[in-house]
Write a structure and sequence with these properties.
With 248 residues, this protein is of the alpha/beta class. Helix content is 35%, strand content 23%. The strands form three sheets. It has an eight-stranded mixed beta sheet with strand order 5-6-2-7-1-8-9-12. A two-stranded antiparallel sheet has the order 3-4.
Length: 248
């Protein structure tokens, strides 16, 4: 049984959506929850790299169910990257993508989970549409964006999609909002700041920190390997807000 399903969605690519999804899942597992992380980004599956799982494979048990890759006793992961060879591209049209998502939804043997975190591809295409339709009930969606207008525009489109799917929007995460000067400590904005729609509460703002990219490239989630850093503290704040919102 899966108690809560959480989607991490962005309107456009390159805003740090997968980094957010991985660290939410890792942070929840770190807090003792039973967590599954489902990577439905079929064309750009980065979750295995971010968790140090490159080269691992999915297995099928005697009941013909897909067995997730386990990081720990309470943290399991499924991604199409576990089924492909190296960096071969997935060149599929809609029906094949829907079929793959259906396999992930119906045939993965997660066991009992407190949370299933779903890392989706950018936009509102086949994969995320199939996921909402097949899972039927999504308990909450968080949107990830950077502060500039072109990204906010796409987030608003994603918001309207979630509304049409009758799902609850928990809020928006603003990523890469500023960088801290290493000499004077001044916060320097990286993008022109635009107004966020009133119906999109900002859950947390993250700075741009090169150490985060290095950590993720090394398969080391921030919440595990950058303890007591500003970014790790922000992720803990985000997770606490998500837990509170999902209970309401």
């Amino acid at each position: 049984m899966i108690k809560k399903k959480l989607v991490v969605l962005s309107g456009k690519g390159g805003v740090g959506k997968s980094t957010v999804a991985v660290n939410i899942a890792a942070g929840l597992a770190d807090s003792g929850f039973k967590v599954g992380l489902l990577d439905i980004d079929l064309h750009g599956p980065n979750v295995p790299r971010m968790l140090g799982l490159v080269g691992r494979n999915l297995e099928v048990n005697d009941n013909e169910k897909i067995v997730p890759v386990s990081i720990s006793e309470n943290f399991k992961v499924v991604s199409i990257a576990f089924l492909t060879m190296g960096n071969r591209p997935i060149i599929w049209r809609g029906p094949l993508k829907h079929k793959m998502i259906q396999e992930f939804v119906e045939k993965v043997e997660w066991g009992d989970l407190d949370f299933l975190v779903i890392d989706s591809p950018p936009g509102t295409g086949d994969e995320i549409l199939s996921t909402f339709q097949l899972l039927k009930k999504i308990d909450g969606t968080v949107l990830v964006s950077t502060p500039q207008q072109v990204s906010i525009d796409d987030v608003e489109r994603a918001r309207e999609f979630v509304k049409l799917m009758n799902s609850k929007i928990l809020g928006v995460i603003l990523n890469m909002t500023y960088v801290v000067c290493p000499k004077c400590g001044e916060k320097i904005p990286l993008f022109p700041r635009k107004n966020i729609p009133e119906d999109l509460p900002v859950l947390v703002e993250f700075p741009m920190d090169p150490k985060v990219a290095e950590s993720i490239d090394n398969g080391e989630p921030v919440v595990w390997f950058m303890r007591n850093s500003e970014v790790e503290k922000r992720f803990r704040e985000l997770i606490n807000k998500i837990l509170e919102l999902l209970e309401n």
